[in-house]
Amino acid sequence: MARGVNKVILIGNLGQDPETRYTPNGNAVVNLNLATDESYKDRQTGQLVPKTEWHRIVMFGKIAEVAGQYLRKGSKVYIEGKLQTRKWQGQDGQDRYTTEVVVDINGQMQMLDSRGGGDNASQGAPQGRPQSQPQQPAAQNSQQGNYGAPAGNNQGGGYSQPGGGQGSMPEPVDDFDDDIPF
Amino acid sequence: MARGVNKVILIGNLGQDPETRYTPNGNAVVNLNLATDESYKDRQTGQLVPKTEWHRIVMFGKIAEVAGQYLRKGSKVYIEGKLQTRKWQGQDGQDRYTTEVVVDINGQMQMLDSRGGGDNASQGAPQGRPQSQPQQPAAQNSQQGNYGAPAGNNQGGGYSQPGGGQGSMPEPVDDFDDDIPF
Amino acid sequence: MARGVNKVILIGNLGQDPETRYTPNGNAVVNLNLATDESYKDRQTGQLVPKTEWHRIVMFGKIAEVAGQYLRKGSKVYIEGKLQTRKWQGQDGQDRYTTEVVVDINGQMQMLDSRGGGDNASQGAPQGRPQSQPQQPAAQNSQQGNYGAPAGNNQGGGYSQPGGGQGSMPEPVDDFDDDIPF
Amino acid sequence: MARGVNKVILIGNLGQDPETRYTPNGNAVVNLNLATDESYKDRQTGQLVPKTEWHRIVMFGKIAEVAGQYLRKGSKVYIEGKLQTRKWQGQDGQDRYTTEVVVDINGQMQMLDSRGGGDNASQGAPQGRPQSQPQQPAAQNSQQGNYGAPAGNNQGGGYSQPGGGQGSMPEPVDDFDDDIPF
DNA sequence: TTTT
DNA sequence: TTTT
Description:
8 strands, DNA-binding (chains A, B, C, D), homotetramer, Single-stranded DNA-binding protein (chains A, B, C, D), DNA recombination (chains A, B, C, D), disordered C terminus, mainly beta, DNA repair (chains A, B, C, D), NA-bd_OB-fold (chains A, B, C, D), DNA-binding, five-stranded mixed β-barrel
């Protein structure tokens, strides 16, 4: 039940492969880094200046599974989610804030590549992507006919972070060298 | 599962009270007539010219029930749905098309009045609106924690139209004098 | 100045090449037929049933020019516009209504194909598309740095319709065998 | 020119009066703190748990002026903008990131209160609000008929911060006791 | 860090 | 810090 509207709509490309983690009860949680490009005309020079905005995306439930399986670095994707800012503690004990686009049971994800993913035609896709699968799956955690389906526990936080090692983004509870979560 | 995006977002006021019908299995179906206002500067005269656009809304499921109960003529409301054009036969046997904004399990509705609806404070609300209810309910057919909840059969059309008499909008199958559905 | 919100967001594919017309003062007006796909699980059979929704798009100004030049049948595109229903007269003198998604100075268009359009690599693109142009242009009639730029006269209607012949969609004023505008 | 889509749509209430600043060339820049409410059903207890999300909004141009003049603490408002994360230096020399919703020439703002703002009827509105003005103005920096109109320089950052003292939010360049911008 |  |  919402007493307001909180909606984010993005179309952009992944800066890197998705990172998949799992909650204690086995639900997938996927993090994406998404770039949206814009260019504007500089008022001084009249030049077109490119500008890239990076977004941190967190996906839950079925959408997360699909994203983890089919999206790759470079993939173009449509995402609909909501803004969420979470507070965490830096190593210095001070509060830090990270704003993310959360794609949960009310969100949507849509792959926009011609054939199912960025560089996956040129090189083998990791995680044993099944070749017989549809090439451009779309995902919506909640949809017609999906009544009673299991859904990611996107509330209450507290998902596990197995590893978080090399290549994965630092998370608040991790003991990393720096405390920059974004 | 969507292989595309079809989204409509409206904020406007109801031109009349909602019309509620029921499907054979008891699910509510509500029709709204929503006005969105816009004004533009006439290039000749420089005058600000007001322009009202009317939208035909069809709601299913829990949202429909809430809308039927709390919305009234004049109510300001936020609506998120999808575009759908349906074909029907005019009395002359020719095809007609009506485009509607469908608010189903994936849609959203949000009342925006200060206290629960347009003119409902000045006159008794029909349909036995419970006075102890929250004044400004928001509705989303599908939401967190709602797993396994029943949902409107918003697919396959074919809902019943009990009456359709005085005050209700003409529907394709009705035997009205004119064949204008919108 | 809007006293409401009227927004449509679509991602889909063109059912045919864009139709370009020009206003008396030379501004481009482009019509598109856009399909958005959705499939839902039939509650009886449990089968996934595909469902295609067709949308009639009207574009004005700079966006129209870009769309006319780069979009082709099959092109995947993101569109942001507003709903507009216009009334016209059928041959029988009765009123008809057609709802369109209008993409004007406040709208947006975004090509989503890997390389500039649907089937345009396999066959010569009409209208003398320049080969040296960027492959995937994006268009926004109104944008940063664009102050003072000319814009389509998307108000007041009354654009000319040169031809409207074979292959183009019937328009209200045309003298066609049927009066179905959509 | 956008090579992507970056859109945020919010409906919520202001947590405090808007803060207005001015760029060196006199353009208004307004900061808002907007709350969007959501409640979800706790899966353990079955209780409805309220949850408020706070958003930092930055407005430029004509929208900023309207917002500064008419919005007040408690005002309900519709906002359309884009996500932007900016980097700044904490007092400890470390990088910090703040994500904001930027409402510029492409954004939109819509007041949703019955009569022009939260508590502004009960107390004198600052900044000499004209009493004869419309009660519920809507604002769009870019709109029909607005061709050639001046617009806020929403690019390049670097607006001045006159004061930033008591009551205003800490900004990166300020010399405050803490370095929390959000 | 992506994409054109 | 808002609102219901």
